[in-house]
Amino acid sequence: MLSALGNIFKIPELRQKIIFTLIMFAIFRMGTHIPVPGVDPTAIEKLFANGNLFGLLDLFSGGAFSKFSIFAMSITPYINAAIIIQLLNVVIPTLEQWSKEGEEGHKKTTQVTRYLTVVLAFLQAIGMSIGLKAAILNPNPVNILIIAITLTAGTVFLMWVGEQITAQGVGNGISLIIFAGIVAALPKNLGTIYHYVQAGTISYFSVFMFGVIALAMVVFVIHVETGFRRIPISYAKRVVGQRAYGGHSSHIPLKVNQAGVIPIIFASSVLMFPVTVAQFIDVPWVKTVASYLEWGKPLQTALYVGLIIFFTYFYTAVTVKIPDMADNLKKYGGFIPGIRPGKPTADYLDHVLTRITLAGSVFLAFIAVLPNMIAAATHIEGVYFGGTALLIVVGVALQTMKQIESMVVMRHYEGFMK
To answer: Where are its TM segments located (predicted)?
Structure first.
């Protein structure tokens, strides 16, 4: 294994890409410690000590949110902008046309996503500055505007860093920034567990159970994330001139979890909205609704699971174009054995996708409520081992390893994924 890993650094191009990626990680981590001017860090720490409402955002930002640094919003506005643009492809013909224009269309879509990111980041920064007004040393409109511009600039800089990693580094830069933020919280979590053990709050058996559950969940997530339903495809043999084409078999890989982590993000955003609003306004009925939607309450858990299943089907239906798949098969002479081309093929693919999406949605719902189960089984609290974070870390790690593996194999070296 070590010799196989050593093959990575035998390729100058790959070695440079990895070094560049690590330098970008270092810049990201340094930025998480640069505070926003005009904010009282003590007041921010007290706010986070009162509850874990912003725990997920702080995890994705690598602790920058709890420090209220220039990267406090992390890359979240860019992700939201990308999701919005992807969903608008269905209703805006221009965006749909761009998606079919290859590299040129991708450049146009990326440019629109950048502009939308700046708008969303500025709006989110204004909302955060007003909502956290108690932590601002001199909360006048000018200072609030300066803080909002600083936070927006931090997000735009991270967007640029992510694009540079994608272009000159290894893997998807945006995903790797989130990955780095989540992994950066690992030492803090391990330190919290160590202090619990030293204080006698938890036993060594609880720590052992925590480790076993964590390892089992990593294996489970890898198994599901790499799971596909292979639809067999045959191509009719045809003769053009003196050459024969087709006559071979292939398959369509339908992923079990087509939607990734997007349904969890959507569902958590919907349920966090009333709770977030209740933190800053003093309206009795809003407080009552928020109390029922607090993390871990039965109603919140039930709604969370239901919304995740709904958004999994919704996002899969938006992103996976079954009619286009059936038309392309028919155009190139492909067919599913025993299924007629055209609409019967589309109906069959839709039936199969509906069934495997159910399995994927149940998997995502289970991953989402995982922290509650771990806390109940091990009695370890204050350590965020969320299924969302686990899903992101495992997914990004697998994608990055596959990209490195392909570059190693292209240069006739033995790979490391056997």
So the answer is: 68-92, 112-136, 142-161, 173-196, 202-224, 259-281, 301-322, 356-377, 383-401
Domain shared by 286 and 332, yes or no: yes
Same domain, 206 and 178: no
Q: Which of 57, 100, 102 is nearest to 75 (CA)?
A: 57
pLDDT in tens, 134-152: 778 887 888 888 888 999 9
- Of 253, 367, 266, 258, nearest to 318 by C-alpha is 258
- pLDDT at res. 244: 57
3-state SS assignment for residue 232: strand
* 287 exposure class (CB count in 10 Å sphere: 0-12, 13-18, 19+): middle
Which residues are 249's β-sheet partners? Answer: 234
Q: Output DSSP code: residue 138.
A: S
Domain span at residue 72?
1-185
Q: What is the pTM of this model?
A: 0.77
Cα-trace Rg, the chain: 24
Q: Look up the CATH number of the domain holding residue 342.
A: 1.10.3370.10
Q: Which of 133, 157, 185 is the last residue of a domain?
A: 185
Between CA 219 and CA 32 the distance in angstroms is 31
Nearest to 400 by CA among 166, 143, 91: 166
Q: What is the pLDDT of residue 382?
A: 55
Q: Is residue 366 part of a domain?
A: yes
58-98: pLDDT as tens digits: 666 666 777 788 888 888 888 888 888 877 887 888 888 88
Helix axes 262-280, 76-88, angle to 10 degrees: 120
Q: Which residues contact 314 (CB under 8 A, 6 or more apart)?
A: 263
Number of domains in the chain: 2
Burial of 60-97, coded b for 16+ CB within 10 Å and e otherwise, reads bbbbbbbbbbbbbbbbbbbbbbbeebbbebeeeeebee
Same domain? 97 vs 176: yes
Torsion on CA atoms 292, 294, 296, 298, rounded to nearest 10: 10
- Whether residues 225 and 310 share a domain: the answer is yes
Parts of the chain with a pLDDT under 70: 1-8, 45-63, 237-248, 273, 275-283, 375-387, 411-418
Which secondary structure element, helix H or strand E, spans residue 252, and what is its range? strand 249-255
128, 162, 185 - which closes a domain: 185
